Each structure stands twice: as structure tokens, then as C-alpha cells.
């Protein structure tokens, strides 16, 4: 486990204490871990499901529709 010394203002310290109390955590380290895990889950890119990755890889193998310009593409799309 890595140990870090961080400086936080009073407001951030209060938020950490609220999270600690709300979820019955033993210490502030657990509260910070919970906050960062929550951030990771909702704000960072989530991991993709293996089924979705396989589906995307399969679709990459499909051939596209050739067209010379945007007008030709519009005609093709409008007929579909």
C-alpha cells in the first residue's frame, strides 16, 4: 500500500469526514479510497464489456459502401 501526505482545506476535510461517517468507514483513508473509486467509475472511461469489444472488432471487418462524393452518398442513404 502506498502512503501519501496531502494538504486539504477545511471544506475538503469536512467532506471526507462526512463520507467517513455516512458509510461507517474506519478512517479517512477508506473515505478517500471510496471517493476516488466513485470518481473513477463515473468520470473516467469505464471498461468496455468484452461482448461489445468483440462486436466492434467484427464490424471493423465489414466492407463499407464506396462513394465518390457527398452527393452520391446522400443518394445511397436516401434509397435505403
Description:
It is a single chain. The chain has 80 residues and is mostly helical. The protein has one domain (10-79). Helix content is 64%, strand content 0%. The longest helix is centred in the middle third of the chain and has 16 residues, at 28-43. The chain is elongated. The chain has helices at residues 10-22, 28-43, 50-61, 70-79.
Helix content: 55-70%
Tell me about the largest β-sheet: none
What is the first-to-last residue Cα distance?
Answer: 58 Å
User: What is the succession of H and E elements?
Assistant: HHHH
Coarse morphology: elongated
- pLDDT averaged over residues: 91
Alpha-beta content class: mainly alpha
Beta-strand percent range: under 5%
Number of helices: 4
Q: Radius of gyration, rounded?
A: 25 Å
Q: Give the number of domains.
A: 1
Q: Which regions have little confidence, pLDDT < 50, spanning 5+ residues?
A: none
How many beta-strand runs? 0
Amino acid at each position: 500500500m502506498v502512503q501519501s501526505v496531502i494538504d486539504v482545506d477545511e471544506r475538503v476535510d469536512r467532506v471526507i469526514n462526512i463520507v467517513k461517517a455516512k458509510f461507517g468507514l474506519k478512517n479517512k483513508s477508506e473515505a478517500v479510497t471510496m471517493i476516488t473509486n466513485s470518481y473513477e467509475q463515473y468520470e473516467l472511461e469505464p471498461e468496455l464489456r468484452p461482448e461489445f469489444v468483440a462486436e466492434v472488432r467484427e464490424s471493423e471487418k465489414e466492407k463499407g459502401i464506396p462513394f465518390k462524393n457527398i452527393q452520391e452518398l446522400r443518394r445511397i442513404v436516401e434509397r435505403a
